[in-house]
Write a structure and sequence with these properties.
Elements: E1 3-7, H1 18-25, E2 28-31, H2 41-48, E3 53-56, H3 63-67, E4 74-77, H4 87-93, E5 96-98, H5 105-121, H6 123-131, E6 147-151, H7 155-164, E7 170-174, H8 180-185, E8 188-190, H9 193-199, E9 202-205, H10 219-224, E10 230-233, H11 242-251, E11 256-259, E12 277-279, H12 288-305
Parallel strand pairs: 1-2, 1-3, 3-4, 4-5, 6-7, 6-9, 7-8, 9-10, 10-11, 11-12
């Protein structure tokens, strides 16, 4: 009987057949996601039943679920974040966990730049006006010369910093682990978190989600920001108190936000009704070139962990 590898990412193999071919060439049977979206806990349990490996998306893989899957040997994440996986349970059960920490970087950095420009220039508002039969011309703002804060200064933040250099921004960074050489290379300087909150025209989050960082940006932090500051999150859902952000944007119509990740996805909350919030459906890695590379690397990681490559 052919060993099964469950594919939980809904878009897997759509841009290139190569990742699926790699699995089949190794003698494995791919089991695609039948729902076309992020799996619920019950759906994940049924989908992963009997599989020796999973090419994983952002679905929750908790300890109770992992203990119910005695055949599972490898979790290979398409992407960098592993906060949705119970790593302690995986270690206890001898399940190897891998991710793809590099392939998504350029795609997320470019999307972040595009999203903050869309928020600054109110591109979605003008687009909606034309589609609704109008021709409104909302007044936006320039990126050039602004103070931009990078809360978290890892790979994506550094790539974004490179993209921002032609705009002559004043670039501030905050991270628990500082790398002064990396900051100098992109023209950034480290600053305390409170300085980012109080001085930045744009604050972009580039943090891994942890319980300690749950709602790292809430009502108190939003109150410290400039009344027209733009908050950007293309990192992980749960970093922002979305209810507090919606209340802040309603009270401060000159403020703005661009979010690509949400605490609960699909997102159906009040931010979707606000004209000063730009929202996308967790598409940070959804650039064709990056997506193919991520999927291929995820399969290669899985095959190596299984001793098949």
């Amino acid at each position: 009987m052919t060993a099964i590898v469950a594919i939980s990412t809904s878009s897997f193999g759509k841009e290139s057949r190569r990742p699926l071919d790699l699995l089949r060439e190794a003698g494995l049977e791919p089991r695609p996601n039948p729902h076309g979206r992020t799996l619920t806990a019950d759906e994940a349990r049924a989908h992963l039943d009997g599989a020796i490996g999973v090419v994983a998306g952002t679905e929750k893989l908790g300890g109770e679920l992992l203990r119910a899957l005695p055949d599972l040997k490898v979790i290979s994440r398409v992407g960098v974040g592993v906060d949705s996986i119970d790593l302690a349970a995986a270690r206890e059960l001898g399940i190897a966990v891998h991710n793809t920490p590099h392939a998504h970087v350029d795609a997320v950095a470019e999307l972040t730049l595009g999203g903050l420009l869309a928020a600054l220039r109110k591109i979605p508002t003008s687009d909606a006006s034309i589609r609704g039969g109008g021709f409104d011309k909302p007044m936006g703002r320039l990126l050039r010369g602004k103070t931009v804060g990078l809360y978290g200064f890892g790979r994506v933040a550094r790539a974004l910093a490179q993209l921002l250099r032609p705009f002559d921004v004043d670039l501030l960074a905050h991270d628990v682990l500082e790398d002064p050489e990396a900051a100098r290379a992109v023209g950034a300087r480290y600053a305390p978190r409170d300085v980012l909150l109080g001085e930045c025209d744009i604050l972009s989050l580039h943090l891994q989600y942890t319980r300690e960082l749950h709602h790292a940006i809430g009502a108190a932090e939003l109150a410290r920001m400039k009344p027209d500051a733009i908050l950007v999150n293309t990192a992980r859902g749960g970093l922002i108190d979305e209810a507090a952000l919606a209340a802040h944007l309603e009270a401060q119509p000159k403020a703005g936000a661009y979010l690509d990740t949400f605490e609960q996805e699909p997102y159906k909350g009040p931010l979707a009704r606000l004209p000063n919030a730009v929202l996308t459906a967790h598409i940070g890695s959804y650039a064709r070139e990056a997506r193919v590379r991520m999927e291929t690397e995820a399969v290669e990681n899985l095959l190596r962990a299984l001793g098949l490559a």
